[in-house]
Write a structure and sequence with these properties.
Radius of gyration: 21 Å
CATH topology: TIM Barrel
Order of helices and strands: HEEEEHHEHHEHHEHEHHEHEHEH
Mean pLDDT: 93
Helix content: 25-40%
CATH architecture: Alpha-Beta Barrel
Number of strands: 11
Number of domains: 1
Strand order of the largest sheet: 8-7-6-5-4-11-10-9
Shape: globular
Number of helices: 13
Largest sheet: 8 strands, parallel
Length: 397
């Protein structure tokens, strides 16, 4: 057999990718250990948070085993504290803090569950810990950025060799808080008992410039220690007026082209994925002039393929209503749309989160357990189909 130089280089690239744990991107294709990948997981918000708050609570061990058996391949979770007070253990006893997180990682490894840790979930927490306003996310010489770099370095260097870790996410939905025309009433809450800042001011109004500065610094820090795993912003879908929020602090609806510009701006390179969170709109209005959620999913998938950045729908789901049968039909239709669009990576909201029992919680015991079964079926069908890069033309609206 004669081998060309190009063939040799392709083989070497695939061989190298196969040895790399977690998810990576090559020429716009999402790969898991060097092979094209598409999968649907769950948000397991409290996976680490429960044992951080109560070391006796190791229920995640059993629940991860159940997820693995149910053909749920990965979970997205909060790999930190939510409020500043939740970081006390990290600040005063790192050995104990990391012992708890180590056990979570070990449980995922044992059950062959992938992990997407979100390192700075609540946007105000790090500035509050170090005693700075939120505008210091935009200052590379700030204590806020220094804290972010240090925690990122500690987690990435500690877990970069774990086969369970699939990627690195910055935080949760920072983009929904940027450049707001009415920012003042939406400033982070003040809870002295939770060790937040004692007061808020205009300097706590997050701007796109500050957010993008933090995103860039996080990405650079991760890449110092992990050259290949996917980088994820943790963003939601841009607001309907996100472009005009930044341009002139107005609520004028954006055009489809303006939406695309913001989508790419807020998921900048070296982030190699496009991250959005998508839910049905109560008012029936959607960004990008989409007529419904299904159309928006197809449009954003098309945008991501054109950008050669695999789409991660980091959150999606159906709020509980007074009709379980309607909920089931709506959820099945939503899964069908995500599957038909060949979205590379997606995760439903939310698994085993008692704090959201009223509207969102999905467990193996409650009456929304069918959602886990349906997700498992999607993953089984995906396994049975060869995965290739999706052509943009196949998802035109």
């Amino acid at each position: 057999m004669r081998w060309s130089l190009a063939t040799t280089l392709v083989c070497l690239t695939l061989s190298a990718s196969a040895a790399e744990p977690g998810l990576s991107v090559r020429q716009g294709q999402l790969l898991l250990r060097g092979k094209p990948y598409r999968g649907m997981g769950v948000n397991y918000f409290s996976l680490f948070y429960r044992t951080l708050k109560n070391p006796a609570d190791t229920s995640y061990r059993l629940e991860l085993a159940k997820l693995s058996k149910a053909n749920i391949p990965f979970v997205r979770f909060m790999a930190c504290g939510f409020w500043p007070v939740d970081w006390d253990l990290y600040q005063h006893n790192k050995k104990a803090y990391f012992a708890r997180l180590d056990d979570v990682i070990a449980a995922a490894e044992k059950n062959r569950i992938g992990l997407i840790p979100s390192l700075f979930w609540n946007m105000a927490t790090v500035p509050d810990i170090v005693g700075e306003p939120m505008d210091q996310w935009g200052n590379v010489d700030s204590r806020t950025i220094a804290f972010m770099r240090n925690y990122t370095r500690e987690l990435v260097t500690r877990y970069k060799d774990s086969p369970a870790v699939w990627g690195w996410e910055f935080g949760n939905e920072y983009n929904l808080h940027i450049d707001l025309p009415n920012a003042a009433p939406h400033r982070p809450p003040v809870w002295p008992t939770l060790k937040t800042a004692p007061q808020r001011s205009q300097r706590d109004d997050l701007t796109s410039r500050a957010m993008l500065t933090a995103y860039a610094d996080f990405a650079r820090t991760v890449r110092l220690y992990d050259k290949h795993r996917i980088l994820i912003t943790g963003n939601s879908i841009p607001r309907r007026s996100a472009y005009h929020n930044s341009l002139d602090r107005s609520w004028k609806p954006d055009s489809p082209e303006q939406f695309r510009k913001v989508l790419l701006r807020d998921n900048p390179s070296p982030y190699d994925t496009i991250c959005v969170h998508l839910y049905p709109s109560a008012g029936g209005e959607y960004p990008r002039s989409a007529r419904n959620l299904a159309e928006l999913i197809r449009m954003v998938q098309d945008d991501s393929v054109k950008a050669k950045k695999p789409l991660f729908i980091g959150e999606f789901g159906i709020r509980r209503s007074d009709s379980p049968e309607k909920d089931r039909q709506a959820f099945a239709a939503l899964l069908h749309t995500v599957e038909a669009a060949k979205v590379p990576l997606s995760a439903i909201w939310v698994f085993d989160h008692a704090g959201q029992n009223k509207d969102w919680n999905v467990t193996f015991e409650n009456n929304r357990k069918y959602m886990l079964a349906l997700v498992g079926e999607v993953n089984q069908r995906t396994k049975d189909q060869p995965e290739t890069t999706t052509s943009p033309s196949s998802h035109k609206p």
